[in-house]
Amino acid sequence: MTELMLKYFRTKQQKIQSEKVYDTQCPFCSMQCKMQLIEQTVVSRKVYKTVGKDNPTTGGRLCVKGMSAHQHTLNNERVNQPLLKVNGNFVAITWKEALDVIKKEFTTIQKQNGSDALSVYGSASLTNEEAYLLGKFARVALKTKHIDYNGRLCMASAATGANLTFGLDRGFTNTLQEIPYTRCIILVGTNIAECQPTIMPYFEQAKENGAYIIVIDPRETKTTDIADLHLKNKPGTDATLANALLKVIVDEELIDKKFLRKRVNGFAEVVHHLKNLDLDECVKVTGLAKEQLCQAARTFGQEDSGMIFTARGIEQQTNGTETVRGFINILLATGRIGKPNSGYGAITGQGNGQGAREHGQKADQLPGYRSIEKKEDRSYIAQVWGVEEKQLPGSGVSAYQMFEKIDEGNITGMLVMGSNPALSSPNANFVKRSLERLKFLVTVDMFISETAQLADLILPASSYLEDQGTMTNVEGRVTLREASRSLPGEVKHDWQIICDIAEVLGKGDKFSFHSAEEIFEELRVASRGGRADYYGITYDRIRKHNGLLWPCPDMDHQGTKRLFEDDFAHEDGKANMSVIGRSHKKVNLSEEYPLFLTTGRVMSHYLTGEQTRKSPSLTARNFESYMEIHPDTGEKYQLEDRTLAQIESRYGRIVVRSKWSKRIRKDTVFVPFHWGGEQNVNRLIADELDPLSHMPGFKVTAVNTRPVQS
Ligand SMILES: Nc1nc2c(c(=O)[nH]1)N[C@H]1C(S)=C(S)[C@@H](COP(=O)(O)OP(=O)(O)OC[C@H]3O[C@@H](n4cnc5c(=O)[nH]c(N)nc54)[C@H](O)[C@@H]3O)O[C@H]1N2
Ligand SMILES: Nc1nc2c(c(=O)[nH]1)N[C@H]1C(S)=C(S)[C@@H](COP(=O)(O)OP(=O)(O)OC[C@H]3O[C@@H](n4cnc5c(=O)[nH]c(N)nc54)[C@H](O)[C@@H]3O)O[C@H]1N2
Ligand code: SF4
Ligand SMILES: [Mo]
């Protein structure tokens, strides 16, 4: 540091009147980077700085979103009081008034339309404690079967695929620490460089150590930039691609026969199916060269260790579950799982995308990955909750299907906590109309999101700086988000809001919690003996061990770093391979809709942008949506670079600016989904769902495009 710089810093130091440091974790993606917000008062003004904090998952790294997260949280658009819609306008009311309104409306709805007419829409932004409590609230306080959450649009296909194949779904079978030592990596439908930026050093290290990296994506991205081989396939063709890779591996005898014999069911059927698969046909379907397919398959098959990572690119498809299974088939055939430096990873999306899918927010699920349809699971949880087993409702429908139920008149009330489905759901015009049809909609949010605008009542929720609780990160590591900033205005924590509503509904005795830790203590017991067993995890142990990987069944257990070393989680201990790609209805192009549309993310914004669009630093990077389009395609449709384009599908139309790029396929356009209104790409997405996971097909839609007439 030069003399001059030292002098500058000293003068600046002298001006700092006070300093507060808040420990927390980033509110955005599944990396859950640990960080501190430093609040300094300088000449009576508050200034903020975010610094990373060391931890086993991310070191001290942060990306630009984490660094800027306080900007939305401290933004003055934050909702600080309950808001009731009166004659079309929101007016501030007290909590007592708000709870009275809820009591009246919820009771009336259930009296008139039955218990299941009330529904709950949850979120993987919630802590484990809140996700758990919301599931209990729906079943015990509201007695409704209708609860599902935004993870249905996110991790559902990965979860279903892993459950069917392994008998257990923890996103990563190994820890991140093993990645640098693997020899071959397939990244399929994932853009980690923009979506989990702080994971990148693990892959860069692998590359330095000589690993061969294959990335499968219809676009060139910052992630494909690290690839040794980029397979730029047509969107929606990954199941065929997985089958083609496996065919080459089987034909060239790159399989692990001993592993298959001892640990896998169903290989013979798969081989039988592959016999009839025509590689030339696969080449046509995927739009790839045969040499590329063979090169990828051979390299993966010949190296002595390998890992496959999937994300939403292949999962958010109407055949997402089977595509995931197709890629896991490759790992099973080559014996690349349950061993050091070999394994599978579904790269989790939201901050608590892992934990929030384990403890009962899903329509068919009870805590600890228990099933709401299984008698013994129901009895166990009923006993933990102090209710009769037969009082627990059965399973409800998935997230998007709840909007169909509203349209049919079967659901008439909804509580949304931590989600913005008006923007994030497929067929968004329909979803908006459904939300408008509700007799009573209450949203719990930090902001008046597009969904909250449609609400009758908005309840103010706390943020990552204020709300303590556990989050289970991308590795399956249960972390403790410390949070100590005092609550602004009349804001409450999500868990407090759940308890308060339960209280006015006469169920306060089952929801008398005074801290997140108290809820976690109940969650531990509820998860005990389940597949996602947290019983051996406590706040103290998390602090001591810097997080613990589940399953962790007792207090002496050190957490599970690598899954499936001896057995898979099915009863016979084996993994189930399955034949894939037999019945899927592909999205076809036509004269009317001649282009594939795919959707996804940019580095600087998060999901529907409700939070990141409020951050000046992040908005400065991308202030509006766009359509990535190949220049040749642009010219074909008279769309210059940076002109306003209309995009239309069978479901709706939007307007965004064109952005020429040679990095995308000529038959494909890409639009991110972080913006609303006319730019909401979900107005174009079809209502078809994966039959197994109920995941929408966000990643491929047939569209047309033309310049907007001025
Ligand atoms: N910056 C940022 N980071 C985030 C988020 C965010 O909103 N912004 N969200 C978080 C969440 S909740 C999630 S779920 C994750 C999502 O993380 P990702 O799944 O990695 O993100 P996406 O951009 O949705 O899609 C990944 C890639 O799939 C490609 N793709 C599209 N269609 C296909 C296809 O048919 N086949 C193949 N092989 N690839 C295809 C896209 O071109 C894209 O590059 O990110 C998390 N991190
Ligand atoms: N076209 C297209 N659509 C997609 C996707 C895609 O790739 N393409 N991806 C899908 C995926 S993977 C996901 S995860 C979904 C996500 O979609 P959404 O669930 O709609 O996600 P968010 O935009 O995070 O909405 C969260 C809302 O909750 C608020 N919030 C944040 N934290 C908290 C909290 O702790 N408590 C409370 N009460 N409120 C909070 C925010 O202010 C915001 O309004 O979108 C899906 N939609
Ligand atoms: S967005 Fe993800 S990678 Fe970036 S700081 Fe937050 S948790 Fe870390
Ligand atoms: Mo997600």
Automatic annotation (TrEMBL):
Q: Which residues form the 4Fe-4S Mo/W bis-MGD-type domain?
A: 19-77
The record's listing under Gene3D superfamilies reads: 2.40.40.20, 3.40.50.740, ADC-like domains, Dimethylsulfoxide Reductase, domain 2
Supply the alphabetized keyword list: 4Fe-4S, Iron, Iron-sulfur, Metal-binding
Output the SMART domains linked to this UniProt entry.
Answer: Molybdop_Fe4S4 (SM00926)
Q: Which cofactor does it need?
A: Mo-bis(molybdopterin guanine dinucleotide)
What superkingdom does the record give?
Bacteria
Q: Which InterPro entries match?
A: Asp_de-COase-like_dom_sf, MoPterin_dinucl-bd_dom, Mopterin_OxRdtase, Mopterin_OxRdtase_4Fe-4S_dom, Mopterin_OxRdtase_prok_CS, Prok_molybdopt-oxidoreductase
Q: Does the keyword Iron apply?
A: yes
- Respond yes or no to whether keyword Metal-binding is given for this record: yes
Identify the NCBIfam families for this entry.
AssmNtatRedNasC
Matching PANTHER family, A to Z?
Answer: NADH-QUINONE OXIDOREDUCTASE SUBUNIT G (PTHR43105:SF10), RESPIRATORY NITRATE REDUCTASE (PTHR43105)
Q: What is this protein called?
A: Nitrate reductase
Q: Which organism is it from?
A: Halobacillus amylolyticus
